[in-house]
Every structure is written in structure tokens, then in C-alpha cells.
Amino acid sequence: MIETFFLAFIPIFVAIDAVGVLPLFLSFTEGYTRKERVRIILQSIITALIIAVAFLFLGDLIFRFLGISVGDFMVAGGAVLFCIAIIEIVNPRKRQRMPGKDFGAVPLGTPLIAGPAVLTTSLILATQHGVIVTLVSLAVNIAITGGIFFLSDFLIRIIGDTGAKAMSKVTSLLLAAIAVMMVRKGIFIFIGTTP
């Protein structure tokens, strides 16, 4: 049972990439108070959990009903992330008005935490290891991501204000690159080749 859990846990851990998402979280929440950050963290992990669990049970049905593919899903998610990245690079001082007060839900909760990679991975794992094991793996991974976000204050103290601003610029470019990667993988799915 433990081995089965880790076989489901590790792919989801890699798909979420909590450490990779952390710089984006720091960039989005620069200048926010501790209380505001806690609210954003809770919003992001609750959103991610609800979407991941709902998609686990309804994903195939939704895709068939709407006539969309995993490739469509990845291209759409990548396009949203790319728009956010461009706004961050061009006009970073408007961060608090973009993406709005609910950016814990979008883009943090989805598609950064519960993105196309996590959703499709969970569907595959459910068929291989069972729904219960996959559910537990999702919940544990999302909780770990929330814990990493909660430690962001400590990380900010280590890197300092200047370091946080520098990281903000770099992570905006990283976000754009992640968006392009998602679009590229979606296109490769369309044409039926390996990215």
C-alpha cells in the first residue's frame, strides 16, 4: 500500500512542482501583508484541491461532452499564463490590480498548482493505482505546496527586498516560458507526436 501511494505521489509531486511555483507566489504577493498572504494561500490550495478532485471524477466526461482534448486544455492554460506574464513584465507595479484580489484561485490555484499536467496525471494514475490512492496523493501534495507557501516570509527575509524584486523579474520570464511550454505540448498532442 505504501509503495502504491508513492507511485502515485511522486508523479503528482513532479507535476505540481511546488518549489518551482514558489518564486511565482513570491512575485505575485510582493508588498502584501502576512494576513493577505495567508488568505491567498488558503484560496489557492482550496481551489486547487476542489478542481483536482472534481476533475479526477469528471474529467473524461467533461472533455467528451465539450468535445475538447487534453491538447486544447494545455493551449488554453498556456495562453492565460502568457498574458499574465506579459502584464507582469511590462507593468509590474500594477501587480495588486492584476490578476485581482482572487489571484489565489487564478492563476495560483489553477493552472499553476492544479494545472493541465496535474489534472491529466491524476486521471492516468487513477486508472493505474485506484481513485482513493490518487485522491490521497493529490491532497498530500497540495498540502505540501501550501506549507511551502506559508514559509515564504522566511524566504523573503533571507533574500531581502532587492532579491525579491530581482526574482520577480526572472519569474515573470519563467512564467512566460512555462506558458509557451504548455502551448507547445498542447500543439504536439494535436499533431500526435512527442514534444
Number of helices: 8
Span between termini: 33 Å
Low-confidence stretches: 94-98
Q: Which sheet architecture does the biggest sheet show?
A: none
β-strand amount: under 5%
Number of strands: 0
Structural class: mainly alpha
Order of helices and strands: HHHHHHHH
Cα-based radius of gyration, to the nearest Å: 17 Å
Q: What is the average per-residue confidence, as pLDDT, rounded to a whole number?
A: 82
The count of domains is: 1
- Which percent bin holds the helix content? over 70%
Taken from the alpha-carbon principal axes, the silhouette is globular
How is this structure best described in words?
With about 200 residues, this protein is mostly helical. The chain has one domain (about 1-190). Helix content is about 85%, strand content about 0%. It has helices spanning about 1-15, 20-30, 35-65, 70-90, 105-115, 115-130, 130-150, 150-190. Mean pLDDT is about 80; it is low at about 95-100.
Q: Keywords for this structure?
A:
mainly alpha
